[in-house]
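During the second year of the project, the team shifted from modelling isolated chains to modelling whole assemblies. The rationale, set out in the original proposal, was that interfaces cannot be judged from single-chain predictions alone. As a representative example for this report, we include one of the complexes processed in the last quarter. Its constituent sequences, exactly as entered into the pipeline, are reproduced here:
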Amino acid sequence: MKVACLWFSRPVPMQQLAENCLRLSPQICFRGEEALFIEYEKCKKIYSEEGFFVRLQVILRRMKLSGRVAVGSDVPDSLVLAKYMGHSVDQLPLEALLDLADPFNKDPIARGYIHKMNSAFCDLGIKDIAGFKKVPLSDLISRFGAIAVLCHQRARGEFTVAWPRWKPEEIIFERTDFPYFEFYGELSPILFELKKQLDLIFQRLWARELKAQTLQVRIYCETNSLNPEPFKNFDFDFLFAQNTTKGALNIIKERLAKDFEKSPILTPIEALSTQVIATAPHITGQKNFFHNQEETAEKIHILLSQLNEVHGKEKIFHAALTEDRRPERSWQKIIHQTDNKLKTIQINEKIPPRPTYLIRPEKIEVRAGFIFIRRKPFRISKWSENFERITGGWAEESNLNLENQHLQNSFDRNYYQVELETGTVLTIFQTPAQSYYLHGYFG
Amino acid sequence: MSAQKSERLQKLKLLIGQVAQSHPRDYITAPNVPNGIARGIVVELLGPCRTEWLIQVLKLHPEHRTFWAETEQRILPTSLHQRGLDLSKITFGVLDKNQATTLRRIIQSQLYQFVIAPNTFDEIKIFQAFQLFTEKSNAILFLMGGKNPTNAWPISTQLEISKGRGVFLTNEFNVEVIKQKHSTQDSGFGEI
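Output from the structure prediction step:
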């Protein structure tokens, strides 16, 4: 076996490099973003060793990468030779034992023991692998245990390493070409073709028990002086992962219609492609005979995803209570309500009734039995007997930008409920500066 | 002449009543509305206590899903929870554009039994579309009206809700029926 190891001193896009190196050999694996291993001896009938290195150089040059290459009989050999730039394993320092014993850097406990062993050998005056190999195995076992035996076997090349399985990431991609410039920037034919592509994509995803979380639709156009860009990209990160053409197509349609209205395509369309960028797991099984909750949830997810596309993020939401006593922070938006059981907080006995509508605090004046809202007087018919005091320290930021607040990052409010002559009940609060603010009303 | 007209009108009403009776409507209970509210209709709510009353209606039907649309976020979910509503059954939407299309889509989906939205519409066509879609999906669209009732025939019921006299923060309401088609469960047709 001949293994070439590419060692990089800086992190590199290893998945991409490994995919590019697949043309050299099918047996490839890598360690994080720093080392790539290629077994190339089995492909010697296809190309010579020199040819292999020339091809490897071309790949690295195209990817604008630079690294060190070393050839060994196994993964640990090639790794230590590339990392420590040595010609023989025997000449390497004792630190190389770390990589010989754990070439894929996956065992931090073993590394700890090897560190201790190395420092002990350094104290004894053994500083390289050749010296370590001369120590009798029986002495190693009694002093350092099994890990020393493993290091010894690896240094002697007696024990091979299993290659971790690596296969390139699967890409689900559909493309349709229009060689005869059948149509210009019209939406309907694009959607027609897109439906065909989505049908195929969702079939493939269904077979893999997956749903589409992120999709990319690309429209290739003929370029001219008016349209210099060769293609238009549309990235869709769905609120809920989609598993049907109908749901996804409606969302895509919304975006495309909006974009075509704003910036129409003036040149003929050459091709259309759809690619799945990210997926989510999907359980494909027998439909439940006793209830249709799953189907309803699926329908709700499709509808909410569509509404989210039209109205923007955070405009369609569920609500959950928080334990903050300030009315404006007593709840939070839940965008992804995956199940119907949200955390419930019992607040009924803890706080007085909150107003049904909450507004941004608006300064008002209270005098002579009247409330002046935007300088318009309203006669007060009732004033609540008790008030609710809400205070907080400097650590709790007040998101209300009130005037005359004596401390910038704190709040101190006395809440009252006031009934107007018209029958409307308001919630107002008073600050320490004796200012009144309208904060909500009962509808 | 006018007598003939009214007679003909009465005959037509009876005919429509017969059709309505052949497809009896389902009614939901509502506080202070003796015969309840028919499903599959558009209801306009007016008055200073309409939201509090509506919350009581939703509370009576905890199994139903609700879509609560507003033009800007004002409704306080904490208050809904305090009044006994299950927040997981309510989806909130801040619809600042394409309101009619969005509401139509929500009603058509048949996923929400109650849809609540501000009445910002003036075209009769939109109300007509809402009427048809609510009827088909058997949902109730509650439109939160302004000061005066909207003059649109597709709105089946208009209620003005005010607070009970001499009480401060209560669930007692005075419900004045301004307009109500499908008023009684017996006749199937009527207008007050």
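Chain B has five helices and nine strands. Residues 185-192 of chain B have pLDDT under 50 and may be disordered.
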